[in-house]
Amino acid sequence: MPRRAKVALGLLVLYLVMPLDLIPDFIPVAGQLDDAVLVAVAIAYVARSAGRDVIKELWPGSDRGLRIVLTFASSAEV
Fold it and tell me: DSSP label at 73?
């Protein structure tokens, strides 16, 4: 996996763990939506730079979950 993809995932994890968000989580729907969008964009970036095969190989969840994540990642591509 390219170093930039690893850095992007590391920054994503740091953002998700931080108590401060762009949109605070106590705001209904929008608070969680900004986190979900960032996750989809990061996965789309990793899929573009490292390839979908890497995501499939490293995915710890179910096949159905993988299909859902890759579908959302495809829609997040710019």
Answer: H
Which tens digits make up the pLDDT trace of 18-27? 888 888 888 8
Q: Is 51 exposed, middle or buried (0-12, 13-18, 19+ CB in 10 A)?
A: middle
Q: Are 21 and 11 in contact (CB under 8 A)?
A: no
- 3-state per-residue secondary structure call for 4-72: HHHHHHHHHHHHHHCCCCCCCCCCCCHHHHHHHHHHHHHHHHHHHHHCHHHHHHHCCCCHHHHHHHHHH
pTM of the model: 0.72
